[in-house]
Amino acid sequence: MPPCIGVRREEKSLWERRVPITPTVALELRQQHGIPVMVQPSPHRAFAATEFEAAGAIVQEDLSACPVVLAIKEIPKSTFQPGQAYAFFAHVVKGQPFNMPMLQRLLDLGCTLVDYERVVDDQGRRLLFFGRHAGVAGMLETLWALGQRLAWESIPNPFASLRHPYEYHDLAEAKADLIRVGEAIRSDGLPSAIVPLTIGVAGYGNVARGTWEILDLLPVRRVEPDALPTVTANPGASPHVIYATTFREEHTVAPQVASGTFNVQHFVAHPEAYRSAFERFLPHLTVLVNAVYWEPRFPRLVTNAALKGLFEAGPPRLRVIGDISCDIEGGIECTVRATDPGDPVFVYDPATGQLQDGFAGPGVVVMAVDILPSELPRDASEDFSRALQAYIPALAAADYSAPFAELALPPEIKRAVIAHRGQLAPAYTYLSNHL
Fold it and tell me: Most buried among 19, 156, 231, 430, using CB within 10 Å?
């Protein structure tokens, strides 16, 4: 038998239903490259065992015959096999403390670790990611939250009939439901209590593009951020449209020095020279969607102090914050914990700093699901599997007993080798300080 590829079951969360190789790709790997795929059985996976078997994959518990085992999320460290190669989202490159024991176990067993997060091109752009589906699922979940919050306020609204993304068979079914909501807004209009309905999306990358993929199914009128005060002050604003905008860096931060001018390259290189300037937009938003990559060195998008001031000024327009980025106490400071698809929102009360599960109670509803792509597992898996497919023949054929310098992998994959034969790869030796 030629070298096979193993697909491990996901065990980090019961909500994780994605796969790195779908039945369709498994069939093509066997037909085009003669690569067998072995798949561990799973009661939660979005693709049934029968789908894999129909594609010619072998469904069995034991993957020890496969030199490479693929997964999506972290693999339990107790299941690693000596000398085996693994590829998954490892979440170790920042020295994350919670995953250092896992990395140490891989080193102890002489394993090879490929981290999807570090599969990049020559310009450093990521090639394997779920950003689009995070944005799509995050926007759907945020609109669901809006519908439930307004219904709790006794405001009938067309969003209240939406379901959680994971309750749809696939993205096509979810989009069909949203198109129905859009038609209702066009014909019947929105309730006067929430007109004008305004939605702001912070960011413009892959995640933000996913949010707009959903928003554009609704009757959206795009406006510039600086036009929001005019929109919300207009008594003649249309109830048949949603006013939506994109916030870029120049809208969210300002130089610390009053006489300074904004420059995006300077901001990225020297974020300490800038402060948050987003507070001025909060009174004019019904929904804020955060799709911004954030690190502690950057100013926050929304601070708890800003929310407190907003609510002290009177009943605010703001109902929901969809924090797709979900950095704990990060860009959205009140995101103090992540949620899961079964209980996706909580209410943050700016007056007390207290949280309440669900969408009822004083404050703002926060959607903070940290595994959003898993809510659309079939669509997300198909896209990811297609991107990974090009590298699988090389992963299957590589001699993992060879020294790192002689390890024959495409450069995009070799850049992502965190550990090999029990040693940290040259680009990741800094992680020894975290072990």
Answer: 19
Across 71-123, the runs of DSSP E, i.e. the strands, are 85-88, 112-115
Residue 249 CA: distances (Å) to CA of 219, 256, 267, 299, 301? 26, 14, 8, 11, 10
Check: pTM over 0.85? Answer yes or no. yes
| Segment holding 375, helix H or strand E | none
Using an 8 Å Cβ cutoff, are 2 and 35 in contact?
Answer: yes
Alpha helical stretches, state H, 313-376 = none
Task: Tell how strand 85-88 and strand 68-70 pair up.
Answer: parallel
Query: What is the SS3 assignment for 294?
Result: coil
The SS3 assignment for 6 reads strand
Instruction: Name the helix (H) or strand (E) containing 201.
Output: strand 197-202
Q: Please give the pLDDT value at position 1.
A: 56
**Judging by DSSP bridges, how do beta strands 85-88 and 354-357 pair with one another?**
unpaired
DSSP code per residue over 324-339: SS--TTSSBTT--S-B
At position 102, the amino acid (one-letter code) is M
End-to-end distance of the chain based on CA atoms, in angstroms?
38
Kindly provide the b/e burial profile for residues 121-144, where b requires at least 16 CB atoms within 10 angstroms of the residue's own CB: eeeeebbbbbbbbbbbbbbbbbbb
DSSP 8-state code for residue 296: T
Q: Phi and psi for 356 in degrees, rounded to 5?
A: -140, 125
Tokens of residue 405, six digits: 């310098």
CA distance 236 to 239: 9
Please say whether the dihedral angle defined by the alpha carbons of residues 87, 88, 94 and 96, taken in this order, is positive or negative: negative
Q: Which residues pair with 274 in a beta bridge?
A: 255
Q: Residue 399 belongs to what H/E stretch?
A: none
**One-letter amino acid of 275:** R
Q: Report mean pLDDT in 10-residue bins for the chain, 435 residues.
A: 89 94 97 96 95 97 96 96 96 93 97 97 91 96 98 97 95 97 97 97 96 98 97 95 97 90 92 94 98 92 97 95 95 96 97 96 97 95 96 96 96 97 96 95
Per the CB < 8 A criterion, the answer to whether 256 and 270 are in contact is: no
